[in-house]
Design brief:
The longest helix is centred in the middle third of the chain and has 20 residues. Helices cover 57% and strands 12% of the residues. It has a four-stranded mixed sheet. Helix 3 runs parallel beside helix 5. It has one domain. By secondary structure, it is of the alpha/beta class.
């Protein structure tokens, strides 16, 4: 399943993820996405999302991170917390809502760490059950 999800990406998407995953924080700026394993586990469990969709969203997240954080001026290693994205991935009931969750995402950055809050707007685009899950999880 993981291989077929990987193969479903375009060549440019695979290259972007490969570059991101190979960055060592010494020779190339690296970003550690905390809670990324939870995002993938929740995507795998949620049949409305799936691994392929999570990989596509990860490509978008990598691009947002490089753009918003201006990696060239940051420390070589930056941590970005994805706890909200992990919870959202578990709760979302629509693939289109899942893909739109980063539409207005802003990385709150301080020092060598950052946080991607989905906020009320991200959660509000889903159904009421998702909103209740979000409130319980915070």
């Amino acid at each position: 399943m993981a291989f077929s999800s990987w193969c479903s990406l375009s060549l440019s998407e695979r290259q972007a993820l490969t570059d991101f995953l190979l960055a060592d924080g010494i020779h190339f700026h690296a970003v550690l996405f905390s809670y990324l394993p939870d995002c993938f586990a929740n995507a795998h469990k949620n049949h409305k999302v799936g691994l392929a969709s999570m990989l596509v969203l990860l490509v978008e997240l990598v691009e947002i991170t490089w753009t918003q954080l201006g990696i060239s001026v940051l420390p070589h290693q930056v941590e970005v917390n994805l706890v909200d994205l992990a919870a959202f991935t578990a709760a979302v009931r629509s693939r289109s809502v899942f893909f739109s969750c980063l539409e207005n995402a802003r990385i709150n950055h301080s020092g060598n760490s950052g946080y991607v809050p989905l906020g009320a707007k991200g959660w509000a685009t889903s159904d009421r059950r998702v909103s209740r899950v979000a409130e319980r999880g915070r």
